[in-house]
Design brief:
alpha/beta, 258 residues
């Protein structure tokens, strides 16, 4: 299976100074690739660089062998959806309005929704079990519900890949599991490619096909969850004393295979 997204010789950082070098990622359709690593290790920097929110220091990001730097913004928006960490506070917008902004790559400058666009918006809301929120003000719903609406907005773009930066932040365990279960289902049913970061190791172990470990100025290791989640390696990655990491956290009892 060929890679839908890949990076080659990618170095990321700020003001032209590389913080992480030689980031070589491969993301296939129908698969979830998850970045893990200590806080401040650079996971968000990598993702923001890949989606174009930060300038590359060097290297190339490809979508199906096409250099993203050579793609028009509208073309990228139709193929890649983004759900980043920052909280969204739209004023006087219903949940339907927020989801419908995912159709902007298709609606033109005026942003007028056709009957087909409205149908796609409602379908996306149904996929994340949020049809009942359509007429609710976005700023009046819970954090878990907001994340579902933002995921619906991403799905509404009908993308081929979704990039998510710690999508379970601010959520309690019920909503974390709900969101990741929906995401895993969409990966299977829509053959999406997913690249994301997570700080909850137990969830990363359950949901990922490939885990990428970010440490210091490099990608330290990548592999299947089985290859990555040994107590000795995770303790080293997170700078813990040997034997202090227990891969069977208490919360794991409540985390189903998704």
């Amino acid at each position: 299976m060929s890679e839908f997204l890949k990076t080659e010789n990618l170095s990321v950082g700020y003001d032209g100074r590389a913080l992480i070098r030689d980031v070589c990622l491969r993301v296939q359709r129908g698969k979830i690739v998850t970045l893990i690593g200590p806080n401040g290790s650079g996971k968000s920097t990598i993702l923001k660089t890949i989606v174009g929110q930060l300038s590359k220091v060097s290297g190339t990001v490809f979508l199906e062998d096409k250099d993203m730097a050579q793609m028009r913004q509208n073309e990228t928006a139709r193929r890649m959806a983004i759900l980043m960490t920052q909280r969204v506070h739209p004023e006087l917008m219903t949940c339907f309005d927020v989801v419908s902004t995912g159709r902007y790559p298709y609606t033109g400058a005026l942003g007028l929704l056709s009957r087909e666009d409205k149908s796609i918006v409602l379908e996306a809301m149904a996929l994340v079990n949020s049809e009942d929120l359509a007429d609710r003000p976005f700023d009046a719903i819970s954090d878990g519900q907001r994340q579902r609406i933002l995921l619906a907005r991403a799905l509404c773009q009908q993308p081929e890949i979704i990039v998510l930066d710690e999508p379970t932040s601010y959520l309690d365990i019920r909503y974390k599991l709900e969101l990741l279960t929906i995401l895993k289902t969409m990966v299977r049913e829509k053959n999406l490619a997913v690249l994301m970061s997570l700080h909850e190791l137990e969830l990363a172990e359950r949901v990922s096909d490939t885990v990428v470990c970010v440490s210091g100025d490099r990608i330290d290791r990548m592999g299947s969850p089985k290859e990555i989640f040994s107590s000795d390696y995770i303790a080293k990655l997170y700078h813990m004393e040997p034997g202090k990491y227990d891969p069977c956290f208490d919360t794991l009892e409540y985390v189903p295979k998704v």
